[in-house]
Design a protein that fits this description.
1 helix; mainly alpha; rod-shaped; 0% strand
């Protein structure tokens, strides 16, 4: 799992919050 993909997930999760 690329760190870039993980970073995108984190950003999306923060946007939801």
């Amino acid at each position: 799992m690329p760190s870039l993909f993980s970073r995108i997930i984190m950003i999306q999760f923060l946007k939801v919050l």
